[in-house]
Amino acid sequence: MSVRALQTLKGIIWGRCFLRAGSQSCRCHLRRHYVALPDDIKSLRAVLNPDISKIRNIGIMAHIDAGKTTTTERMLYYSGYTRALGDVDDGDTVTDFMAQERERGITIQSAAVTFDWKSHRINLIDTPGHVDFTLEVERALRVLDGAVAVFDSSAGVEAQTLTVWRQAEKHQIPCICFLNKMDKPTADLNFSMESIRLKLRASPVLLQMPIGSGKNFTGVVDLLTNQKLIWNLTSTRDDGRTFEAKPLGQSEDPELLEAAGEARTALVEQVADLDDEFAELLLTDFSDNFEAVPAKKASLPFQNRTLCSDLQEAVRRVTLARKGVPVLCGSSLKNKGVQPLLDAITAYLPAPNERHHDLVRWYKDDLCALAFKVLHDKQRGPLVFLRIYSGTLKAQTAVHNINRNSTERMSRLLVPFADQHVEIPSMSAGNIALTVGLKQTVTGDTIVSSKASAAAAARRAQSDGGTGTKRGDRSDIGIVLSGVEVPDPVFFCTIEPPTTAKQADLENALNCLQREDPSLKVRVDPDSGQTILCGMGELHIDIVHDRIRREYGIETHLGPLQVAYRETILQEASTADTLDRTIGDRRHLAAVNLSVRPVDFTSCEVAFTEELRVQIQPEIKEAVENGVHSSYLQGPLLGYPVRGVSSLIHSVSVEPGTSATMVSACVSRCMLKALRLAGAQVLEPVMSLEVTVGEEHLSSVLGDLAQRRGTVREIQSRHDNKVLLATVPLAEMMGYSTVLRTVTSGNATFSMELDAYEAMNPHDQSALLKRISGLM
User: Fold this and answer.
1) Mind telling me which Pfam families this protein's record contains (predicted)?
2) Annotated binding site
């Protein structure tokens, strides 16, 4: 529908519509007044198991300290699954159950909880907001259908908000925005809306506006129903279970009435611009009567629809199509606005059957699930979280792991509730389950009912022109769901046990922790024989160190923290090599000719000429690829992994009887020569830094960043503070929190995320080479 046509009718339609809306509310919403829940909390055994259309799989994501865990805690309390309101500062929340989380007051690993709300079943995952644990967000979003982005309404979009939002966009997840902390003196609705629009490049659809500000924040105006939702909290102990919902009337504050009318007008205009069906409805059915429209679907529970219900349906379509994001307001800590947020989750976010998973359809009614998280329990062993896409998962049954090509017996099936779980006999499609007994399964594995069902799905895909995933030469392996992308570590250090007798225990602990956390990498230095621990940041490695001490009883020693640099090349180069060895009475001869060239940093490729690709034998091709990839693991300059290189294999000559290992060795040696000829270059991780500081300390912070090779991009004003945006090499950021606290007397906060890997200038690279050479 043309926007110009809407604007032509704006004066006629909006004027009459909103004069009436000011004096009476829409009839599609009943008065909402939540009574106190009984003293007994609900049991997980009684959680609803509704039709798949009533299931919501959602994640809570945000920048650190925006209020994710507090919001989750209120949801569990108002839905009746906890007896008391937990507090992050007191360390007694449901989802932050690790000792490290309760001590530090932050979320470290994602936690899943299941509860019901108004005939809907909600499977919720509370995710971390710290940049070091971004993998937890990634693997949660991989299996979820919707997300709630929580914002500090005084800060708007922050550094980690951008990161998690990009992750949600990558998985095409519909989102709802919740502007939290509206009780803060510096809370700013317009600023937050504008930051969502500019920084996230999203279309925020405002559904609520706050009543009062700061300490006087008492509730919100629901712009859909034209109602006031008021929380009359009489004391700090008031839990916010009940609130009053009443229509806006002419007796209201004139400023509030005018602001609400303008906001609702803007809402309807915006939704009409985003949704053609709603725009058509306004221009036709509502031209004479704006309050009722004949029902279009017999399944609707009423025969006359109001403008409110049509608007709500349009908002849902806009949300599911990811054309806009509904925005709600509240203060979770002050127990205001969480119940309407739960209503919005059930109203606007998709059910599992509304999300399209192309590969899953080939399994039809057979079981198909994805393992997205593993935990280790001392009594139960490995606990594997599964998202069930099709079929039914039953306890005491055997399942097939396509990725491992193995069959395992699942002994028990559990409903997840943070660290407290309830055993159940079965679970249907669309849900998130916790399993016991899958000892080989890791993050990203596809689980099906049997080998036969996997082969049947592959045959269906092939017969319908689809593409099944194969392993080696096998065509019956089945269709594998895409796994979880694991970022490369940016820090590493040595880790040593207190005595050699504890080495085996340390290796077992590291193996368990790696299975839980794929972003944690462990390797052994080939020269020194030392164990190297690689992680996503200082906090990440510190948490791992602490967990080894607490959970496994090993007092380990960590070496100095070092930055994980990368290497690349500056130009194209070509070379050839021959490997000729006789072992026993058998001659191994391989010759290869290849070239390398620089490409985008994010990729590391290997390709064959068209002529060679047709002629080369599969086993030789695999050996060549293994040789190329092994050379990417250790660069020619300092031994760091190689990135941003494309290799082209021109010719491969192999004597009959030559082993694949010898072919790989020949290719690897040839690659090393080519990388050296192409001119090696060190790449260093550069962080995007955001510092919020008072103006009186700004010069001190700028001076410190200049010494850290930082580049200031922008300085913004935010209320009485300055927000400094800069890029700084990660190597210069070690211990920054302590220094910042010192130079600002504790009156500053900062956050950072990996921005890119950039080439070091010759002077810094030379200094790095000298420093590392001195350590060797």
Assistant:
1) EFG_C, EFG_III, EFG_IV, GTP_EFTU, GTP_EFTU_D2
2) 62-69, 126-130, 180-183
